[in-house]
């Protein structure tokens, strides 16, 4: 008999993102304050034990794959391999977080899959095992699992909870393109040294939240290559890019600047949230 669970997975923004240097494994060490916000994907999982594993994904978005390339699929597969369970699993993904936007939508969905599968099969994995699976699947899943506000180190997988500031958030995302982490970090490596030196704003924002400490090392690496990013920064000088972009955010309930809706998606009325993956029903 199938068991079903519906969960919600919040997007994240980076209040700070300081790139510290390249690692031997090809990734970069970072120092970042990640913040979960009230923009959610909703995922419905149905599963039962079976003689042979079958994973079937579907959803509301035409911008993501519904096969083994999807992080939800990879997370389910990793969970089943780790536990030795054979299962028939179906998932419906209601996609509200923009894709390839620097908002960790894919990572949030992957973390949601681990959370949901563990609930559906009566928690065969403890928190440490789930954390380890998160870290093997990507850099942001550990944060996305718990959400709220956290200092994230290493590739981003080493997280430490901090106090959540109560802030309003508006997102501005250029339409028609995304920026991969690989592209952003590669371009970062070509920046002059003075633009790559960390500002140490992360420690300052932990000690006392202040908008003037918002910072993203990767913004300077990509902003000159995309006129849309420069337009956002010109109209909203206080805006900051999230992650590897191309989404920018301002800490306001709404924005006075007018953006062409054919070129930009504006999502306003958001807030910070002090939670991560949660059960809806």
Please describe what this structure looks like:
This protein has 281 residues and is an alpha+beta fold. It has two domains: 3-162 and 274-279, Ribosomal Protein S5, domain 2 (2-Layer Sandwich), CATH 3.30.230.10; 168-271, 2-Layer Sandwich (Alpha-Beta Plaits), CATH 3.30.70. 28% of the residues lie in helices and 32% in strands. The protein contains nine helices and twelve strands. It has helices at 71-83, 105-120, 127-137, 141-146, 181-189, 193-196, 201-207, 219-222, 227-235; strands at 3-22, 28-49, 54-59, 87-94, 149-153, 158-161, 168-174, 215-216, 240-241, 248-250, 264-271, 278-279. Strands 1, 2, 3, 4, 5, 6, 8 and 12 form an eight-stranded mixed sheet that branches. It has a four-stranded antiparallel sheet with strand order 9-10-7-11, with helices on one face. The mean pLDDT is 95.
